[in-house]
TrEMBL record:
InterPro entries cross-referenced by the UniProt entry: Gfo/Idh/MocA-like_OxRdtase_N, Gfo/Idh/MocA_oxidrdct_glycsds, GFO_IDH_MocA-like_dom, NAD(P)-bd_dom_sf
Domain spans labelled GFO/IDH/MocA-like oxidoreductase: 141-271
Keyword set includes Mitochondrion: no
Superkingdom in the source lineage: Bacteria
PANTHER family referenced in this protein's UniProt entry, alphabetically: BCDNA.GH03377
Domain Gfo/Idh/MocA-like oxidoreductase N-terminal, chain residue ranges per copy: 7-130
Protein name: Gfo/Idh/MocA family oxidoreductase
Amino acid sequence: MSNESIHMALHGYGYIGRLHVLASQLNAAAAVAAPRLVWDAAVVRSLDSEAAARAADHFSLVTDDLQALRHQPIDAIDIASPNAFHHAPFQLALDMGWGIYCEKPISHQLDEAQQMAQKVKEAGNVHQVALMYRFHPAVIEARDWLLSGQLGRALTFRAELLHGGYLNPSRTMSWRLQSGPSGGGAMMDLGIHLIDTLHTLLGRVESVTATTKTFVTRRSGQSGDEAVDVDDWASATLQMASGAVGTVEVSRVHYGRERDFIDIVCEHGVLHIPLEEYRGVEVHTYRTDLIAPERPHGSILQPLGAKFAQSTLLNLHATSLAAFARRVRGGTVGIPVPTFEDAVLAQQVVAAAMASGDKAGVRIQVG
Protein backbone atom coordinates (compact mmCIF):
# COMPACT_ATOMS: atom_id res chain seq x y z
CA MET A 1 0.00 0.00 0.00
CA SER A 2 1.26 3.46 -0.89
CA ASN A 3 1.30 6.14 1.79
CA GLU A 4 1.38 8.93 -0.78
CA SER A 5 -0.90 11.89 -0.25
CA ILE A 6 -4.57 11.77 -1.25
CA HIS A 7 -5.90 14.92 -2.89
CA MET A 8 -9.31 15.73 -1.44
CA ALA A 9 -12.27 17.89 -2.37
CA LEU A 10 -14.73 18.93 0.31
CA HIS A 11 -18.40 19.56 -0.39
CA GLY A 12 -19.67 21.84 2.36
CA TYR A 13 -17.46 23.79 4.76
CA GLY A 14 -19.78 24.22 7.72
CA TYR A 15 -19.20 22.82 11.19
CA ILE A 16 -18.88 19.18 10.19
CA GLY A 17 -16.68 19.94 7.18
CA ARG A 18 -14.30 21.93 9.34
CA LEU A 19 -14.29 19.09 11.87
CA HIS A 20 -13.25 16.61 9.17
CA VAL A 21 -10.35 18.82 8.10
CA LEU A 22 -9.26 19.27 11.71
CA ALA A 23 -9.46 15.50 12.30
CA SER A 24 -7.20 14.83 9.32
CA GLN A 25 -4.70 17.33 10.71
CA LEU A 26 -4.78 15.47 14.02
CA ASN A 27 -3.79 12.30 12.16
CA ALA A 28 -0.86 14.13 10.59
CA ALA A 29 0.27 15.56 13.95
CA ALA A 30 0.05 12.16 15.63
CA ALA A 31 1.91 10.45 12.74
CA VAL A 32 -0.92 7.96 12.18
CA ALA A 33 0.21 5.40 9.61
CA ALA A 34 -2.22 6.44 6.89
CA PRO A 35 -1.87 8.41 3.65
CA ARG A 36 -2.02 12.15 4.28
CA LEU A 37 -5.16 13.97 3.16
CA VAL A 38 -4.41 17.14 1.19
CA TRP A 39 -7.45 19.42 1.01
CA ASP A 40 -7.25 21.06 -2.41
CA ALA A 41 -10.77 22.27 -3.22
CA ALA A 42 -13.89 23.28 -1.30
CA VAL A 43 -17.37 23.65 -2.75
CA VAL A 44 -19.61 26.10 -0.87
CA ARG A 45 -23.17 27.24 -1.50
CA SER A 46 -22.21 30.91 -1.91
CA LEU A 47 -18.92 32.66 -2.46
CA ASP A 48 -20.24 35.49 -0.28
CA SER A 49 -20.76 33.19 2.71
CA GLU A 50 -18.80 32.93 5.93
CA ALA A 51 -17.94 29.34 4.95
CA ALA A 52 -16.30 30.59 1.74
CA ALA A 53 -14.26 33.16 3.64
CA ARG A 54 -13.07 30.52 6.09
CA ALA A 55 -12.27 28.05 3.31
CA ALA A 56 -10.15 30.60 1.44
CA ASP A 57 -7.54 30.34 4.21
CA HIS A 58 -7.05 26.60 3.67
CA PHE A 59 -7.99 25.56 0.11
CA SER A 60 -6.30 26.50 -3.14
CA LEU A 61 -9.71 26.44 -4.84
CA VAL A 62 -12.97 27.65 -3.28
CA THR A 63 -15.94 27.52 -5.64
CA ASP A 64 -19.72 27.41 -5.73
CA ASP A 65 -19.59 25.40 -8.98
CA LEU A 66 -19.45 21.66 -8.30
CA GLN A 67 -18.50 20.94 -11.90
CA ALA A 68 -15.28 22.95 -11.48
CA LEU A 69 -13.90 19.95 -9.60
CA ARG A 70 -13.76 17.97 -12.86
CA HIS A 71 -10.64 19.92 -13.79
CA GLN A 72 -8.81 19.35 -10.50
CA PRO A 73 -6.37 16.48 -9.69
CA ILE A 74 -8.68 14.94 -7.09
CA ASP A 75 -8.53 11.42 -5.67
CA ALA A 76 -11.55 11.52 -3.36
CA ILE A 77 -14.37 13.75 -2.16
CA ASP A 78 -15.68 14.33 1.35
CA ILE A 79 -19.41 15.13 1.29
CA ALA A 80 -20.16 17.18 4.40
CA SER A 81 -22.99 19.39 3.14
CA PRO A 82 -26.60 19.29 4.45
CA ASN A 83 -28.32 15.95 3.87
CA ALA A 84 -30.44 17.10 0.92
CA PHE A 85 -27.37 18.15 -1.08
CA HIS A 86 -25.41 14.88 -1.06
CA HIS A 87 -26.56 13.38 -4.34
CA ALA A 88 -24.94 15.78 -6.81
CA PRO A 89 -21.36 15.47 -5.45
CA PHE A 90 -21.93 11.73 -5.05
CA GLN A 91 -22.87 11.41 -8.73
CA LEU A 92 -19.89 13.49 -9.81
CA ALA A 93 -17.58 11.24 -7.78
CA LEU A 94 -19.07 8.17 -9.47
CA ASP A 95 -18.51 9.74 -12.89
CA MET A 96 -14.91 10.64 -12.05
CA GLY A 97 -13.99 7.40 -10.27
CA TRP A 98 -13.12 9.15 -7.01
CA GLY A 99 -13.24 7.71 -3.54
CA ILE A 100 -16.31 8.88 -1.61
CA TYR A 101 -16.45 9.79 2.08
CA CYS A 102 -19.96 10.88 3.05
CA GLU A 103 -21.64 12.18 6.17
CA LYS A 104 -24.70 10.42 7.51
CA PRO A 105 -27.43 10.01 6.45
CA ILE A 106 -26.25 9.63 2.89
CA SER A 107 -29.51 11.24 1.75
CA HIS A 108 -32.48 12.97 3.36
CA GLN A 109 -34.75 10.52 1.54
CA LEU A 110 -34.58 6.76 2.05
CA ASP A 111 -35.40 5.88 -1.55
CA GLU A 112 -32.60 8.11 -2.83
CA ALA A 113 -30.21 6.62 -0.26
CA GLN A 114 -31.10 3.12 -1.51
CA GLN A 115 -30.41 4.17 -5.11
CA MET A 116 -27.06 5.67 -4.11
CA ALA A 117 -26.03 2.50 -2.29
CA GLN A 118 -26.88 0.40 -5.34
CA LYS A 119 -25.04 2.75 -7.70
CA VAL A 120 -21.82 2.84 -5.69
CA LYS A 121 -21.89 -0.93 -5.27
CA GLU A 122 -22.16 -1.38 -9.04
CA ALA A 123 -19.51 1.26 -9.78
CA GLY A 124 -17.03 -0.15 -7.27
CA ASN A 125 -15.75 3.20 -5.92
CA VAL A 126 -14.02 3.03 -2.56
CA HIS A 127 -16.55 4.59 -0.22
CA GLN A 128 -17.26 5.05 3.46
CA VAL A 129 -19.85 6.77 5.64
CA ALA A 130 -18.94 8.86 8.68
CA LEU A 131 -20.63 6.51 11.14
CA MET A 132 -17.50 6.85 13.22
CA TYR A 133 -18.62 5.11 16.42
CA ARG A 134 -17.54 1.85 14.77
CA PHE A 135 -13.99 3.10 15.41
CA HIS A 136 -14.50 3.74 19.12
CA PRO A 137 -12.03 1.65 21.18
CA ALA A 138 -14.85 0.37 23.39
CA VAL A 139 -17.00 -0.65 20.40
CA ILE A 140 -14.08 -2.54 18.85
CA GLU A 141 -13.39 -4.32 22.14
CA ALA A 142 -17.09 -5.06 22.73
CA ARG A 143 -17.33 -6.61 19.29
CA ASP A 144 -14.32 -8.79 20.08
CA TRP A 145 -16.01 -9.99 23.29
CA LEU A 146 -19.27 -10.76 21.51
CA LEU A 147 -17.50 -12.62 18.70
CA SER A 148 -15.57 -14.68 21.26
CA GLY A 149 -18.84 -16.14 22.54
CA GLN A 150 -17.63 -16.08 26.14
CA LEU A 151 -20.48 -13.87 27.36
CA GLY A 152 -23.15 -16.00 25.71
CA ARG A 153 -26.18 -14.63 23.89
CA ALA A 154 -27.01 -10.94 24.01
CA LEU A 155 -30.32 -10.57 25.83
CA THR A 156 -31.10 -6.86 26.24
CA PHE A 157 -29.48 -3.50 25.58
CA ARG A 158 -29.89 0.17 26.31
CA ALA A 159 -28.40 2.92 24.15
CA GLU A 160 -28.54 6.65 24.83
CA LEU A 161 -27.24 9.66 22.96
CA LEU A 162 -28.43 12.81 24.70
CA HIS A 163 -27.22 16.19 23.42
CA GLY A 164 -28.26 19.68 24.45
CA GLY A 165 -27.88 21.72 21.30
CA TYR A 166 -31.47 22.83 20.89
CA LEU A 167 -32.91 23.11 24.39
CA ASN A 168 -32.60 26.90 24.28
CA PRO A 169 -35.70 28.15 22.39
CA SER A 170 -33.81 31.34 21.48
CA ARG A 171 -31.43 29.40 19.27
CA THR A 172 -32.29 30.27 15.70
CA MET A 173 -33.69 27.95 13.06
CA SER A 174 -31.31 25.48 11.39
CA TRP A 175 -31.70 23.17 8.41
CA ARG A 176 -31.37 20.33 10.91
CA LEU A 177 -34.76 21.34 12.35
CA GLN A 178 -36.59 21.17 9.02
CA SER A 179 -37.64 17.88 7.45
CA GLY A 180 -37.06 19.10 3.89
CA PRO A 181 -33.27 19.44 3.99
CA SER A 182 -32.62 17.05 6.91
CA GLY A 183 -35.07 14.18 6.47
CA GLY A 184 -35.60 13.90 10.23
CA GLY A 185 -34.73 15.15 13.68
CA ALA A 186 -32.99 13.62 16.66
CA MET A 187 -33.61 10.05 15.53
CA MET A 188 -32.13 10.76 12.09
CA ASP A 189 -29.25 12.92 13.32
CA LEU A 190 -28.24 10.96 16.43
CA GLY A 191 -30.16 7.69 16.38
CA ILE A 192 -28.60 6.57 13.11
CA HIS A 193 -25.23 6.43 14.92
CA LEU A 194 -26.54 4.18 17.69
CA ILE A 195 -28.45 1.96 15.27
CA ASP A 196 -25.42 1.42 13.05
CA THR A 197 -23.34 0.59 16.12
CA LEU A 198 -25.97 -1.89 17.33
CA HIS A 199 -26.06 -3.44 13.86
CA THR A 200 -22.29 -3.88 14.08
CA LEU A 201 -22.48 -5.52 17.50
CA LEU A 202 -25.79 -7.40 17.52
CA GLY A 203 -26.98 -7.83 13.95
CA ARG A 204 -30.11 -6.58 12.19
CA VAL A 205 -33.15 -4.86 13.70
CA GLU A 206 -36.38 -6.71 12.95
CA SER A 207 -39.07 -4.32 14.24
CA VAL A 208 -39.48 -1.00 16.04
CA THR A 209 -41.95 0.73 18.33
CA ALA A 210 -41.25 4.38 19.07
CA THR A 211 -42.36 7.63 20.64
CA THR A 212 -41.20 10.93 19.15
CA LYS A 213 -41.68 14.45 20.51
CA THR A 214 -41.05 18.04 19.41
CA PHE A 215 -40.83 20.29 22.46
CA VAL A 216 -39.63 23.53 20.86
CA THR A 217 -42.11 23.85 18.02
CA ARG A 218 -41.17 27.27 16.59
CA ARG A 219 -37.94 29.23 16.16
CA SER A 220 -36.77 32.45 14.66
CA GLY A 221 -35.54 32.00 11.08
CA GLN A 222 -34.81 33.92 7.90
CA SER A 223 -38.51 34.39 7.18
CA GLY A 224 -39.46 35.22 10.77
CA ASP A 225 -41.19 32.79 13.10
CA GLU A 226 -40.82 29.31 11.57
CA ALA A 227 -42.18 25.88 12.45
CA VAL A 228 -39.94 23.03 13.60
CA ASP A 229 -41.28 19.89 11.94
CA VAL A 230 -38.85 17.23 13.18
CA ASP A 231 -38.45 15.47 16.53
CA ASP A 232 -36.38 16.93 19.36
CA TRP A 233 -36.45 13.64 21.29
CA ALA A 234 -37.24 10.02 20.53
CA SER A 235 -37.31 6.69 22.31
CA ALA A 236 -37.58 3.38 20.48
CA THR A 237 -37.75 -0.27 21.46
CA LEU A 238 -35.89 -2.44 18.97
CA GLN A 239 -36.49 -6.14 18.45
CA MET A 240 -33.39 -7.70 16.92
CA ALA A 241 -33.44 -10.62 14.52
CA SER A 242 -31.20 -12.46 17.00
CA GLY A 243 -33.89 -12.30 19.68
CA ALA A 244 -32.26 -9.54 21.72
CA VAL A 245 -34.47 -6.60 22.64
CA GLY A 246 -33.58 -3.14 23.88
CA THR A 247 -34.12 0.59 23.78
CA VAL A 248 -32.58 3.59 22.06
CA GLU A 249 -33.14 7.10 23.41
CA VAL A 250 -31.90 10.20 21.61
CA SER A 251 -32.33 13.86 22.43
CA ARG A 252 -31.24 17.26 21.17
CA VAL A 253 -32.88 19.01 24.16
CA HIS A 254 -30.71 17.61 26.94
CA TYR A 255 -28.38 19.95 28.81
CA GLY A 256 -25.33 19.88 31.06
CA ARG A 257 -23.86 16.41 31.36
CA GLU A 258 -24.48 14.90 27.96
CA ARG A 259 -24.76 11.12 27.86
CA ASP A 260 -23.65 8.72 25.18
CA PHE A 261 -23.37 5.02 25.96
CA ILE A 262 -24.52 1.49 25.14
CA ASP A 263 -25.06 -1.27 27.71
CA ILE A 264 -25.47 -4.84 26.45
CA VAL A 265 -26.69 -7.52 28.85
CA CYS A 266 -25.54 -11.01 27.88
CA GLU A 267 -26.11 -14.40 29.48
CA HIS A 268 -22.86 -14.23 31.45
CA GLY A 269 -22.34 -10.53 32.00
CA VAL A 270 -22.75 -6.94 30.87
CA LEU A 271 -20.75 -4.83 28.43
CA HIS A 272 -20.70 -1.10 29.14
CA ILE A 273 -19.60 0.98 26.15
CA PRO A 274 -18.83 4.58 27.22
CA LEU A 275 -19.22 6.31 23.87
CA GLU A 276 -18.76 9.75 25.41
CA GLU A 277 -15.33 8.80 26.74
CA TYR A 278 -12.23 7.77 24.81
CA ARG A 279 -11.49 4.48 26.52
CA GLY A 280 -12.15 0.78 26.32
CA VAL A 281 -15.16 -1.35 27.18
CA GLU A 282 -16.10 -2.31 30.74
CA VAL A 283 -16.91 -5.99 31.26
CA HIS A 284 -18.96 -6.92 34.31
CA THR A 285 -19.40 -10.67 34.81
CA TYR A 286 -20.09 -13.18 37.55
CA ARG A 287 -17.79 -15.65 35.78
CA THR A 288 -14.18 -16.02 36.93
CA ASP A 289 -12.90 -18.01 33.97
CA LEU A 290 -13.31 -15.45 31.17
CA ILE A 291 -10.24 -14.21 29.33
CA ALA A 292 -10.10 -10.98 27.35
CA PRO A 293 -10.12 -11.96 23.67
CA GLU A 294 -6.93 -11.39 21.76
CA ARG A 295 -7.86 -10.14 18.33
CA PRO A 296 -4.99 -8.33 16.62
CA HIS A 297 -5.95 -5.00 15.10
CA GLY A 298 -3.83 -2.87 12.82
CA SER A 299 -2.21 0.38 13.84
CA ILE A 300 -5.00 2.42 12.25
CA LEU A 301 -7.41 1.17 14.92
CA GLN A 302 -5.13 1.80 17.86
CA PRO A 303 -6.34 4.68 20.06
CA LEU A 304 -4.50 7.96 19.62
CA GLY A 305 -1.78 8.47 22.19
CA ALA A 306 -2.51 10.61 25.24
CA LYS A 307 -0.28 13.44 24.03
CA PHE A 308 -2.28 13.88 20.83
CA ALA A 309 -5.78 12.65 21.71
CA GLN A 310 -8.34 15.44 21.82
CA SER A 311 -12.10 15.13 22.30
CA THR A 312 -13.70 11.73 21.78
CA LEU A 313 -15.66 13.07 18.80
CA LEU A 314 -12.58 14.47 17.07
CA ASN A 315 -10.55 11.34 17.78
CA LEU A 316 -13.21 9.09 16.23
CA HIS A 317 -13.49 11.25 13.13
CA ALA A 318 -9.70 11.10 12.84
CA THR A 319 -9.61 7.30 12.96
CA SER A 320 -12.52 7.04 10.53
CA LEU A 321 -10.75 9.30 8.02
CA ALA A 322 -7.46 7.43 8.49
CA ALA A 323 -9.25 4.17 7.70
CA PHE A 324 -10.76 5.73 4.57
CA ALA A 325 -7.39 7.05 3.44
CA ARG A 326 -5.79 3.65 3.84
CA ARG A 327 -8.59 2.00 1.87
CA VAL A 328 -8.34 4.53 -0.97
CA ARG A 329 -4.75 3.39 -1.42
CA GLY A 330 -5.73 -0.29 -1.44
CA GLY A 331 -5.13 -1.11 2.21
CA THR A 332 -7.35 -2.88 4.70
CA VAL A 333 -8.52 -1.89 8.16
CA GLY A 334 -9.39 -5.03 10.13
CA ILE A 335 -13.01 -4.31 11.06
CA PRO A 336 -16.11 -3.85 8.88
CA VAL A 337 -16.18 -0.21 7.78
CA PRO A 338 -19.53 1.58 7.37
CA THR A 339 -20.59 1.42 3.74
CA PHE A 340 -23.49 3.09 1.93
CA GLU A 341 -25.38 -0.18 2.26
CA ASP A 342 -24.84 -0.12 6.02
CA ALA A 343 -26.05 3.48 6.15
CA VAL A 344 -29.22 2.48 4.32
CA LEU A 345 -29.87 -0.36 6.77
CA ALA A 346 -29.59 2.08 9.66
CA GLN A 347 -31.75 4.66 7.89
CA GLN A 348 -34.45 2.03 7.36
CA VAL A 349 -34.63 1.60 11.12
CA VAL A 350 -34.77 5.38 11.57
CA ALA A 351 -37.63 5.56 9.06
CA ALA A 352 -39.48 2.78 10.89
CA ALA A 353 -39.03 4.60 14.22
CA MET A 354 -40.30 7.87 12.74
CA ALA A 355 -43.30 6.08 11.25
CA SER A 356 -44.05 4.39 14.56
CA GLY A 357 -43.84 7.74 16.36
CA ASP A 358 -46.28 9.27 13.88
CA LYS A 359 -48.69 6.39 14.52
CA ALA A 360 -48.71 6.55 18.33
CA GLY A 361 -46.18 3.77 18.79
CA VAL A 362 -47.48 0.96 16.60
CA ARG A 363 -44.96 -1.76 15.80
CA ILE A 364 -43.28 -1.28 12.43
CA GLN A 365 -41.37 -4.02 10.64
CA VAL A 366 -38.02 -2.94 9.23
CA GLY A 367 -37.20 -3.39 5.58
